[in-house]
Amino acid sequence: MTNEQIAQDLLSQFGEEKIFGIVENYGLLNVTTTTETIVPLLHYLYQHPVFKFQFLTDLGGIHFPDAKGQELGVIYHLHSLENNVRLIVKLHVPIDAPDVPTLTGLYATANWMEREAFDFYGINFVGHPNLIRILNVEDMDYFPMRKEYPLEDATREDKIDALFGR
């Protein structure tokens, strides 16, 4: 089973309008899809008689503030344990409507990973059984991993710029 075979199978099953951005980075196949296609796509990969991507290794949120209409995203790292092949699936959503369908019905591991992505990026996983903050305090009114804040606090007076090479 090669990355080319997986890509061709996905294109023939879903079409170029639903599976796009196909690249191979460091031997890992990366595909991009839409929020409408993510659940059927991952069900297909899970139940495929050859591919068997039945392990969700990781799920993470991303924030690209300059990508208008696609500021937030989710990256799914899938693993076929039987074939020892990995696959990365991405999707992007606008920051003003960060709704992505949950995958907790397919992958039990998605539960906490989706809660973490919600907690830090504000991605709303529609249908999640318990989408509440997991690491930050419950009354927090912002999402700390979004690139909306300066990297340094300009008001700090306890640091000497010369010690930091400035």
What keyword list fits this structure?
single chain, 166 residues, Beta Polymerase, domain 2, 7 strands, 27% strand, globular, NADH dehydrogenase (ubiquinone) activity, NADH_quin_OxRdtase_su_C/D-like
Give the arrangement of secondary structure elements.
Layout: H1 3-14, E1 20-25, E2 28-33, H2 38-47, E3 55-63, E4 72-80, E5 85-93, E6 99-101, H3 110-121, E7 124-126
Parallel strand pairs: 2-5, 6-7
Antiparallel strand pairs: 1-2, 3-4, 4-5
Strand order of the largest sheet: 1-2-5-4-3
Terminal Cα separation, in Å?
52 Å
Helical proportion, percent range: 10-25%
Largest sheet: 5 strands, mixed
Multimer state = single chain
Q: Please give the count of helices.
A: 3
CATH-scheme architecture: 2-Layer Sandwich
Number of domains: 1
- Please report which band the strand proportion falls in: under 5%, 5-15%, 15-25%, 25-35%, 35-45% or over 45%: 25-35%
What is the overall silhouette? globular
CATH topology: Beta Polymerase, domain 2
Beta strand count: 7
Calculate the mean pLDDT score and round it: 91
Helix-strand string: HEEHEEEEHE
Q: CATH class, anyone?
A: Alpha Beta
Cα radius of gyration in angstroms: 19 Å
* Low-pLDDT windows of residues: none
Instruction: Provide the structure class.
Output: alpha/beta
User: CATH superfamily assignment?
Assistant: NADH:ubiquinone oxidoreductase Nqo5 subunit
